[in-house]
From TrEMBL:
This is Arginine ABC transporter ATP-binding protein. It is a peripheral membrane protein. SMART domains: AAA. It comes from Metabacillus indicus (Bacillus indicus). Pfam families: ABC_tran. Keywords: ATP-binding, Cell membrane, Membrane, Nucleotide-binding, Transport. One of its GO terms (cellular component) is plasma membrane. The keyword ATP-binding applies.
Amino acid sequence: MISMKELHKSFGELDVLKGIDLDIPKGKVVVVIGPSGSGKTTLLRCLNVLEVPNKGRITLDQQTLDFTKPVPKKTITQFRSNTGMVFQNYNLFPHKTALENVIEGPVIVKKTDKETARKKAKVLLEKVGLGDKMDFYPFQLSGGQQQRVGIARALAMEPKVMLFDEPTSALDPELVGEVLKVMKDLANDGMTMVVVTHEMRFAKEAADEVIFMDGGVIVEQGTPEALFNSPKEERTKKFLRKLE
Ligand code: ADP
């Protein structure tokens, strides 16, 4: 479904991704863990080309972008429309209601007519447990509710893959569970997902594959059982020991 080959990204002199190879089969949940600064968010942002890689290739479904040559903006926009991104800080439009936030993408980007978009948005907001909050503005919603709007908004674009960038790290602890539950439901529905998170329980319970990154490379990857219970690499062991 989605793959990265020999992907490199640097910011000026700083090499952040140093050759990433990763294959994510359709319907699988991949959780990316690793120390702060190891390149997890950059990896995710390269996957939907919010950051343009310096080298390497990304394939999503049938479409391959080769970053050894300049990629036209239009191609990037089209590629990105197949991905849904959920941000740490929700990134909702503050002056729009939950429903308006969810229909924005389909109406503006996909040119869906407003009524169709509205109907679909209602279904999605119900799915994330916000059927009674559709006309609320972000400031009237808790962080967990805002993030669930963020998830519904990403889903409204009918993405082939959902990308989550530390979706619960801005939340008060008691609100984390409701967001993780929506994510688990999505995983059970067969959505392909890449999740950067510090929630090791989510990784253990929902991931098909866990990626451990450090220093801009994938140090180790495997099933949650393998990675958490019998890590092979010293750097993985050290990271996991610190979490205990
Ligand atoms: P992680 O998500 O694992 O904490 P990031 O991908 O956010 O790591 O960051 C990796 C490194 O890249 C950090 O040193 C960070 O400061 C740097 N970095 C990230 N984004 C930018 C940017 N837009 N400009 C310059 N440096 C950046």
